[in-house]
């Protein structure tokens, strides 16, 4: 049993409380955990997205740069 600030009003409520006795917010202690978890999962998704983008970008760069260079060289020759 521990007290945490209510997500609605900041009143100290028990972590097992179903509703805040002061403002009546439901799950006054749990909401913050869920928001925190959402923030973590969001930043994880963002990280995965950035890594994927970098990997794909690098792959495209490595795969297509020689082709582009060859095409440009051919154009200069022709
Ligand atoms: Zn409250």
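Sequence proposed for the structure above (78 residues):
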């Amino acid at each position: 049993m521990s007290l945490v600030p209510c997500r609605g009003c900041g009143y100290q409520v028990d972590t097992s409380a179903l509703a805040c006795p002061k403002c009546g917010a439901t799950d006054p202690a749990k909401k913050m955990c869920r928001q925190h978890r959402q923030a973590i999962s969001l930043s994880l998704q963002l990280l995965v997205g950035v890594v994927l983008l970098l990997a794909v970008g690098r792959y495209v760069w490595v795969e297509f740069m020689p082709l582009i260079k060859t095409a440009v060289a051919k154009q200069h020759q022709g």
